[in-house]
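Reproducibility note. Readers wishing to regenerate the assembly model reported in the main text can use the exact inputs given here. Chain order matters: entities are listed in the order in which they were concatenated for prediction.
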Amino acid sequence: MTMSIEVRDLELRYGNVTALDRLSFRLDGGKIHGLLGRNGSGKTSLLSVMAAFRRATSGDAWIDGQPVFENPDVASDICFIRGEGDTVVHDWPADRVKDALAFASTFRPAWDSDYATALVDRFRLPLKKRLGQLSRGQRSALGITLGLASRAPLTMFDESYLGMDAPSRYVFYDELLADFMAHPRTFVISTHLIEEVSSLFEEVVIIDEGQLVLHESAEELRARGAAVTGPTEQVARFAQGLTILGDKQLGPTRSVMVYGELDDGQIELARESGLELGPIALQDLFVHLTESRGRTS
Amino acid sequence: MFDERSPIYRQIAAQIRADVLSGTLQADEQIMSTTQYAAYYRINPATAAKAFQELVDEGVLYKRRGIGMFVGPDAREALRSEHRRRFFTDVVDPMVAEALAIGIPIEDVIRRITHAADEQISGSTVGETES
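Running the prediction on these inputs yields the following structure tokens for the assembly.
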């Protein structure tokens, strides 16, 4: 079972600070979605509203067409794991790891305790340790264990790898993919480690200052940008009228990052003008899209 | 694993084409599933599926419903002729341009090509000889 998510004109204000600014988008069920944004862009606020941890100031979030806030019908279908897994335990910090697992098993209808045990092994989590004594990375690993073993139709991880070393993060990525393929469901994963995880995403949502910057398939997005490099004059002529995200100059050579699909004519023109066309990494696109929001030359 | 600077599905497709071209993958041989590709390369299964779809559209692969993906019976020959078609523009023309740019006479290039071809055909392993 998978669940789609839709938000319409979603607004969230804390006092006079606007955290989410009329956000609207729809995420299909059965996919792994990446939620990208800079620090303070509103990622956690957005996930908190989608998980019904917070009430929106106006607008709403729907899961499979049902409003999420104070809706017991969908509550157990949504699993939201914040940075260090603090949202899914009963008594922090006195509880032990095994208590946290036992607690999750009581209110997660699809809980798989064998899988939870396997994850505990893979992450080398000490079952008898109190939660307050776990390292930051261990708390993250516990959060991931609770999130994956819940098998919730909608599972959201908010920067859930904080403090984890590279081997543990790769365990997370491998387990996420394997379990997603074995038990298809909807995942939303917020991150700023774009380089490392972007290949896991089917779709990407980028927000900035509480607003939607873009929502697109990850592969489309990668094909969206191009780095155009060559003699200054020719590059300038080629880039005329295109959206330029970045611009660098090295002696007589200029390199611009253009955003938008290039048609065959433009690619031919670039070749004839002796310009080099290269793809742009998702991380670079993200940096430029959230830095300048684009401008037209 | 992958060069982040190029769409991953293109790289997967290119690699499968190269394997078919070299004979590593034979006609009617089954290839790994999207699930295996996704787990192996740590990528979203939709990305792997996109690579397969591109190759199905090109006739390099064909799908047997419920079983998997297989190498097309004529895939190798089609890829070979495709590469033959592009060989002069992709390989020879740039080489000529490079030779002219750095001042190597075309006669020297031709002599070298003839020499290298003779060696390869006779299977000789004498090694590098200066022309």
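We highlight two features of this model. The mean pLDDT of chain B is 88. Residues 75-101 of chain B form the longest helix (27 residues).
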